[in-house]
Amino acid sequence: MDQVKQTIFICSGAGDDRRAQINRELMEKHAQALVDAVKEAGKDADASYIYIPAAYTEAVKEITPLAEPLGIKVVTGDDSPVCRDKTALISAFNGKIIRPYVEEDQETYRGYENIAKIIVSVEDVLRKAMGTEDKKLLYVSGAVNAPGFVEAAYGTNLAEILAMAGGVKDGSVIKAVLVGGELGRFIVPEALETTIMEKDSDIFTGGVEVLDQSYCAADFTKQILEGAKADSCGKCPLCREGTYQFYTIFNEITNGKAKNTDPALLKDMAETIGWGAFCSFGRNMVNVVRTAFDVMGDEIEGHIKRKKCEAGVCKSFMTLAILTNKCTGCGECADACPEDAIEGKAGYIHMIDNDMCEKCGKCMEVCEEDAIIVVGSVKPKLPKRLTRVGRFR
Fold this sequence. Notes:
The protein is an alpha/beta fold and 393 residues long. The protein is built from twelve helices and 15 strands. It is elongated. This is 4Fe-4S binding protein. Residues 318-347, 348-377 form the 4Fe-4S ferredoxin-type domain. One of its GO terms (molecular function) is metal ion binding. It comes from Candidatus Scybalocola faecigallinarum.
């Protein structure tokens, strides 16, 4: 093997969860401390770098003037959770497409110009310098009283982490907790106290999102899979096609077009991709699909078999109706409808054409009588033609 020419130290700010940008928060809030920590950590290397995603403009602005006088070079470029694979980070660092590759020397990540690379994340560099290596920064969001960043010690359970964010909102019933974003897992409410944040956990990487009854299991999972589809680097056919198919099928589930066989197909795909994907991104992104069915399967399959969205989120399953005993025939709803989907005139009970209705909710916002409601499979008796207010029986 050729002799290594030099060793470089790279502090990486890439690989954030889309919904919990931990590296960004740390770089923006602790720019000076980070630069000082990189100077110390890279003192034995031939050169030191800080890799900052170009989209983090504030971090670039704060860190660059502090780093350059110390001989630390700031490199900007693309970002993706795929960059958690260090070979993919090297590709981004060198201005190439973010894609992982097989590396002979996993200890020094040689391969590009035969340079040995020591790669450490922003949080790890800072925590070592500050002596807080027993803690982790997380972003807690969703149905909690105080969404935001919290710092928790390893060994803390999920229930305690939610308490750090003010606890679950009053009146909310937890449906599930997604830990780790698009590379994470859904956790059942009963497991909050037994789900422990361990060091180097594959799910406690940044994001903790609490889903209550206002969240639709199918629609939320679709959103997460849309992010995974966008983030897949495309190198591995299993991941490239798998993320596309996952998103497509969940989109059909939320639009009422899914087949009864789709849940079994999704589970089989997750098993195959989880076993055969090239990198950890592909192998881990399937866990969202697996655990979505484990934790919220009845609700998701309800979209397919009963054509019902329990949370009232999926517009394809929504029907709006104007209550005959409340409508005053004022016409405000018809004026507010951008699709002209409401028929009526002054003094007459108004009617909604649900084939034309886009379910935007503007009519509900302007109705002072609260006469417009979302109905499920059981619909109230409604007039088939315009009828004067107070005369429909």
